[in-house]
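Mods, move this if it's the wrong board.
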Amino acid sequence: MSEQAALPGESWGAFLAKAFQSRSFLAGFALTALLVAMAAVSLVWTPYDVTKLVVADKLQPPSALHWFGTDQFGRDVFSMIMVGSRNSIAVALVAVGIGMGLGVPLGCWAAARGGWLDETLMRLNDLVFAFPALLSAIMITAIFGPGAINAIVAIGIFNIPVFARVARAGALALWPREFVLAARACGKGPFLITVEHIVPNIASMLLVQGTIQFALGILAEAGLSYVGLGAQPPAPSWGRMLFDTQTRMIAAPYLALFPGMAIVLTVLGLNLLGDGLSDTLDPKLRRQR
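Not the wrong board. Structure tokens:
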């Protein structure tokens, strides 16, 4: 029987009760829930149509009519931030899914087989690490052109070695454990041991790493959009909004303030959520309280 590192015999209710005792988790959950709620609402409603240009209303400061003001084309900035949150979540979520879906099996496979296979996979990981998401996006864009899909692919490729290393490190620490040796003595092969014992026990660290990579994915998406390699107009993007503000910082500083704050609060919330999950899911930290 495996020694679950995350939630041995606990219900979700008990887990959430412990999680919400962490201030980091509570603050991170609130900020993340706000982001998700804003993105969900933007699917069905925004104060103004973000694709409609109203030049007569351009560069209006924040007011009761336009909470965050309007941009150089008369578009409502608050509405654009709402729709931009949806795009950021979609890009980061799919990119993390790619990284986790490919990286975790590779890391577990390397830990289970060891030897030359482990060494080869880790050296390939190092090779991928040599090409950051931005550089990967530039190369992909040069071939296929700019766009959100190419940004997802670039960020996802960069996430693969991250999850592979985390999964490999966690799996290597578990393979010498008694419950794994007992499973091997019962005749189970590396695949069954990995699926039934290794993966459930490293799920907590993968979840925490997932929240960190999600935050980094949102930052990467904003950076790629800033240099014109992410979501293309007329689709709103926080990074693109910052780029369009460069020449209007003096006349309309709010154009940079609000999308910048959206990025900062989102990344802060996800990092706090990851810290809170780490404290809650790690049995050693729980025993120290």
